[in-house]
Amino acid sequence: MIICFCFVLIWQSKFKDDLFSKPYLLGFSTAFLILKRGIVAIPLTLLFFKPFCEADNKAKLKTIIVFLATFGCLIAIVTINCPSIEILKNYNPLVLQTSYLPSYIHVLDVVLPFYYSFKIQNFNTSLFRFSIVLMLFPTIVASIWFGITHGFNASIIKNKYDISYLSIVLPYLIFEIAKPKDNLELS
C-alpha cells in the first residue's frame, strides 16, 4: 500500500496538469500495482478515472492496451509456474484477499470509487479522505462480519482473521494527519 501511496503522490506532483501524458508508463504501473494488491484499485480509480474520461482517445487507447498487455503477461507468468489448477483456484490472491466478505460488499467497493472520482474537488483534501473511507469500509465490515459469524475471540485471540488488513490505510491516514492545515496544496 505504501508503494501505491508513493506512486499516487509522485504521479500527481509530476503530471498534475495532464495525468495521461505518459500513457504507456501509466498503463504498466497501474496494472502492476493492481495485481500486487487488489485494494489499490480504490485510490488509483479515484485519481485516474475522471481524467481518463476527459483524456483524448489516443491516450485512452495506449493506456488500455499497455494495461491489458501487462496484466496478461503477469497473469501468464503466474499461471505457467503454478503446479496445478486446484492450487491456482484455492490460493490465488483474489480468493485469499476477498474470502472474508460477501460478494455484494466487493461489488459496492469496486463501483463506489468510480462515482466518487467525479466528486473529488482537490487532490490533497479529497482524494486521501475518500481513499481512507473506501478502503476502511470493506476492512471494517469484514472484521465485524467475521467477528459475528466466528466470534470475536476466534477472530482476534486465535488469529482466525488477519487484523493486519486494517493497516492498509495507514499511509493515507498518516498523510491526512501530518499535513499542514493552513497549506493543503502540494508543491
Question: What is the structure about, briefly put?
Answer:
It contains ten helices and no strands. It is mainly alpha-helical.
Describe the overall structure.
The chain is mainly alpha-helical and 187 residues long. It has ten helices and no strands. The chain has helices at residues 2-14, 23-36, 41-54, 57-81, 85-91, 93-98, 103-116, 123-150, 152-157, 170-178.
Report the mean per-residue pLDDT as an integer: 84
Q: Spans with pLDDT under 50 lasting ≥5 residues?
A: none
The sequence of SSEs as H and E is HHHHHHHHHH
Q: Would you count the extended β strands for me?
A: 0
What amount of the residues lies in strands?
under 5%
Count, helices: 10
The N- to C-terminal Cα distance equals 23 Å
CA radius of gyration is 18 Å
- Main β sheet profile: none
Structural class: mainly alpha
Gross morphology: globular
Q: Level of helix content?
A: over 70%
SSE order and pairing:
Elements: H1 2-14, H2 23-36, H3 41-54, H4 57-81, H5 85-91, H6 93-98, H7 103-116, H8 123-150, H9 152-157, H10 170-178
Helix pairs in contact: 2-4, 3-7, 3-8, 7-8, 8-10
Give a quick set of tags describing it:
187 residues; 73% helix; 0% strand; mainly alpha
